[in-house]
Write a structure and sequence with these properties.
This protein is an alpha+beta fold. The protein contains nine helices and 14 strands. It has one domain. It is 32% helix and 26% strand. Strand 3 and strand 4 form a beta hairpin.
């Protein structure tokens, strides 16, 4: 049971960027905010284990004014079906701010926040590439890229990537406006690298980054992502061999979304800034050795331990 709760907590924290089934919301019945015609996007997210009807995790991502607010594991109001307002017991909030080349992670329950510069994620990507390509594990070495061309199978609105003991299937739909595909692509890539930094231990992120690039290049946004991995690799870790994320995108914000953004801005303004190692040491539901070391050496200490072939999330 402990390993199931650990997995669920991890999924809830880092289902980042997976757009979802919509939590039962009918946009026609809820007040909306049209705002700018370009750059406004609402992405709901749910992640399921194979065969399950109840989601393991639920997130909400709001794009506005060049910024993305990612609300992780927000509680849902039982009467309206909408994500509830931000409370002290809600999940983390992640601010994606590409103009300032930073990501800010906020923990409302502890009134703490940490900031990660974009250059740090770029350096992480380079380090993971070097480590993965030298791995003795065939799957990890494949996931280090850079060429996945032979593994791709493409159809009109579907993409499949097959590697050693792993398979990704992505269904996608046309982006609702001209810039939406690239807007989402940039967010999803950053979210995947952020997860790799704060919760190391899965496969390298490069298959997902390659998929994101292909989908964005044809003006698409994922509508469903399925990840299947060899059960032998997941059985001992207590993880499902298949995960599915279902995506729903709205080119409008709801009135309650504006309130949620204002609440997030207020939380971010008063939260105490701490370094990444301190932030992770107190919040991570997944045991991460090395979390108490200095931030600059945190990821390096994980890489030195060699590959841990765990089930990666089908991030959006």
């Amino acid at each position: 049971m402990d390993h199931i709760m650990t997995m669920t907590n991890r999924l809830a924290r880092w289902g980042v960027g997976l757009c979802a089934l919509g939590m039962g919301i009918d946009p026609a019945t809820v007040p909306t905010y049209a705002g700018e015609q370009s750059g406004v996007l609402r992405v709901e997210s749910e992640i399921f284990a194979a065969g399950d009807e109840k989601p393991l995790a639920r997130t909400l991502t709001l794009f506005r004014n060049g910024i993305a607010w990612d609300f992780l594991d927000l509680p849902v109001d039982k009467e309206t079906g909408l994500p509830a307002s931000i409370t002290d017991d809600c999940g983390e909030i992640v601010l994606h701010d590409p103009a300032r080349e930073r990501v800010v992670v906020i923990d409302p329950s502890r009134n703490k926040k940490t900031q990660i510069a974009a250059i740090r994620l770029e350096r992480l990507s380079a380090s993971l590439t070097s480590w993965a390509r030298q791995s003795d594990d065939r799957l990890v070495r494949w996931a280090g890229g850079p060429d996945f061309g032979d593994g791709f199978k493409e159809q009109k609105s579907q993409l499949e990537l097959i590697g050693p003991r792993v398979r990704y299937e992505v269904q996608f739909t046309p982006a609702p406006f001209e810039d939406a595909a690239e807007l989402y692509h940039r967010f999803a890539d950053t979210a995947i690298l952020l997860k790799a930094l704060m919760h190391p231990g899965g496969l390298p992120p490069f298959p997902r980054l390659a998929i994101n690039q292909r989908v964005a290049s044809v003006g698409g946004i994922p509508s469903m992502v399925t990840l299947d991995i060899d059960a032998k690799l997941t059985l001992s870790a207590g993880r499902p061999a298949s995960l599915r994320s279902v995506h729903k995108v709205h080119p409008r914000l709801l009135a309650i979304d504006l309130e949620r953004i204002q609440q997030a801005e207020a939380r971010a303004a008063v939260a105490e800034m701490v370094d990444l190692a301190t932030f992770i040491d107190h919040t991570s539901a997944v045991p991460i050795s090395g979390a108490s070391v200095q931030p600059d050496s945190f990821q390096a200490s994980e890489l030195k331990k060699g590959p841990k072939v765990l089930l990666p999330l089908p991030s959006g």
